[in-house]
Design goal:
The chain contains seven helices and 21 strands. It is α+β, with helices and mostly antiparallel strands. The strands form six sheets. Strands 1-2-3-7-8-9-12-13 form an eight-stranded mixed β-sheet. A five-stranded mixed β-sheet has the order 14-15-16-17-19, with no helix packed on it. Strands 4-6 form a two-stranded antiparallel sheet. The protein has helices at 41-47, 81-84, 106-109, 129-137, 144-153, 200-203, 217-234, and strands at residues 3-5, 9-14, 17-23, 29-32, 36-37, 52-55, 58-64, 67-71, 98-100, 113-114, 117-118, 124-128, 157-160, 165-167, 170-174, 183-186, 191-194, 210-211, 238-240, 247-252, 255-260. The chain starts with a strand and ends with a strand.
């Protein structure tokens, strides 16, 4: 049963876990279908006759044991319902003490900052070790935000290895392709898949399709097929940052179907 909360948040029971879905934008975006490749142009037009593909931006918050865990942190734009939920000196939802970053694109980490300060000063921030090692020494425009985050959070920014149990009952899984440090997170009840998919209307049925955001497209395709098959075989629900809802994956021909819980 889904319960609607303030700021258009929703609460969903997934197995024994109550997952809060926090939108990072007031409404989903429409991406030009030209931003996706992997099928002939005629087939892409058939799949997206309006010429656009819907993309959501979601953040997830749940309790595991005594820990409040958040997956990703959004763009940090002041219009974001997520940002409005954590005003200075107050809060509308529980503050996380564990933050998991699937990767370090701006739309997944900007909300960690309030100006140049940590929005969650008591939280530990976890990312895949290869991503941490790369961005700690990176320079240039794209590294400016990550450097601010490393400064704001200090030694509370931590890396994890593939398969590592980050806290009891929660595991980090490497799934490189979308970025060289892209990771998933898994509990007994749910698999958080980050940017494994960007266009639900295209990529479940045709997992060979990639968005232009995927840095290593062959690796992204391989990881997408691998993890969608694992989700279909196990029956474990998935939550993706750019998916419309939490749901289950089912095999369908050479692709998959995605059904809301």
């Amino acid at each position: 049963m889904e319960q609607v909360l303030p700021f258009v948040f929703s609460l969903l029971m997934v197995g024994q876990t109550s997952v809060m879905i926090l939108p990072d934008s007031p409404a989903p975006a429409d991406l030009p279908v030209a931003m996706f490749t992997g099928l002939p142009e005629e087939k892409m037009k058939e799949l997206a006759p309006e010429g656009t593909v819907r993309l959501w931006r979601n953040i997830f918050l749940f309790k595991l044991g005594e820990r409040q865990v958040m997956v990703d942190a959004g763009l940090g734009d002041q219009s974001s319902p997520f940002v409005k939920a954590f005003p200075r000196g107050g809060q509308e939802v529980p503050r996380p003490d564990v933050i998991l970053l699937t990767h370090l694109h701006a739309d997944h980490l900007g909300g960690l900052l309030d100006g140049d300060d940590a929005r969650f000063p008591d939280a530990k921030v976890y990312m895949a070790k290869p991503a941490l090692e790369h961005w700690k020494s990176a320079t240039g425009d794209r590294a400016q935000m990550t450097q601010k985050i490393f400064k704001a959070y200090g030694d509370r920014v931590l890396g994890f290895d593939d398969g590592e149990e980050i806290i009891p009952g929660l595991f980090g899984r490497f799934a490189f392709g979308h970025t060289p440090g892209h990771a998933l997170f898994e509990t007994a009840d749910i698999l958080f898949v980050g940017d494994l998919l960007h266009g639900a209307s295209l990529q479940f049925a045709y997992p060979d399709i990639c968005a232009s955001f995927d840095m290593d497209k062959p690796a992204a395709v391989a990881q997408r097929k691998l993890w969608l098959k694992r989700a279909a075989d196990s029956g474990k629900p998935i939550a993706g940052c750019h998916l419309p809802h939490i749901g289950k994956v089912k095999a369908q021909g050479e692709g998959f179907e995605f059904e809301s819980l």
